[in-house]
Design goal:
single chain; alpha+beta; Alpha-Beta Plaits; 4-stranded antiparallel beta sheet; 4 strands; 8% strand
């Protein structure tokens, strides 16, 4: 029986190759959208993780704080267990750093004088001590030497909240896209079933079960889904190489390896399974609807 089902499925694909490619294209587009969203959000989460594990605090001294008081503050903070590294940067070093990275600003900076930029302490915390950031900031503020303390964790927390909301919205939109994909595939396969209406009605008259009748169409849906998943992953790889990597390099956003990695093996495997699942789901919806309409 499985041989007959396979032959009928192959015959249906051969006779309706246009419908097959149409369904595969719809599935490919859906999986491409899901894959791009997974790539972008995954990269954003890796960035947040990198920022959180490499917490830095920039402490800018008030004008007029004596040099010995600055050095003493550096030694006091260096003794804290949260601190991995601390560097004292005087005004001249800050100016040199800024001129090196923005040479066009050199005349303006020189015109402002040697004391245009404040001295500062650049502090990097141990990754395992990131949770103690608030206590470190409180200890630094107690010294009452700073014009400003800049540590950016509030921005990171807001960005993580944004990512959570974006993930929820993306999941909802993804479910909608998948539902629309099943609907479109079902309507496409419904046209194939309608074109073979006489064959289906004869099988129903001779006592064939719904499962036997639906078998070839479900197999066709699985083939369409596999083709769609293959096309979708190929298109996703092209988008990753030709668009996302170039955008990543233009933004000069560094991650662990300095590159934007492709989807992991588990995600690729899920997408490969998702294609046939969408195809079979659409085929079953179409066949069930058609069989229910036959008296």
């Amino acid at each position: 029986m499985s041989g007959r089902v396979l032959r009928r499925a192959l015959r249906g694909i051969r006779e309706h190759i246009g419908f097959t490619l149409m369904s595969a294209g719809v599935i490919a587009c859906a999986l491409l959208l899901v894959g791009v969203f997974a790539l972008v959000t995954g990269q954003a989460r890796r960035l947040v993780g990198t920022w959180e594990s490499d917490t830095q605090v920039s402490a800018y001294f008030k004008p007029g704080v004596p040099e010995d008081a600055r050095r003493a503050a550096a030694e006091t903070l260096r003794a804290r267990p949260e601190v991995a590294e601390i560097q004292y940067v005087d005004g001249a070093q800050a100016q040199a750093w800024l001129v090196e990275r923005s040479p066009e600003l050199a005349p303006v900076i020189e015109g402002l004088g040697a004391d245009a930029l404040p001295a500062s302490l650049e502090v990097r915390l141990h990754p395992e001590q990131v949770g103690q950031l608030s206590s470190f900031v409180a200890a630094a503020e107690a010294l009452d030497l700073w014009e400003q303390l800049d540590y950016g964790q509030e921005w990171v927390a807001r960005f993580r909240t944004f990512l959570t909301l974006a993930g929820m919205l993306g999941t909802a939109l993804g479910l909608i896209v998948l539902a629309v994909t099943v609907f479109l595939v079902a309507n496409t396969i419904h046209l194939v079933v309608h074109a073979r209406r006489d064959e289906v009605e004869v099988m129903r008259l001779v006592g064939a079960t719904d499962t036997f009748i639906a078998g070839p169409f479900l197999l066709e849906g699985a083939v369409q889904g596999f083709l769609g998943a293959t096309f979708g992953l190929g298109a996703l790889w092209a988008v990753h190489q030709l668009v996302l990597l170039r955008a990543h390099s233009l933004l000069v956003v560094a991650t662990d390896g300095g590159t934007l990695p492709f989807l992991g093996v588990p995600t690729v495997f899920l997408l490969l399974l998702g294609g046939p699942a969408l195809g079979v789901g659409g085929a079953w919806t179409a066949v069930r609807r058609f069989l229910a309409a036959i008296p």
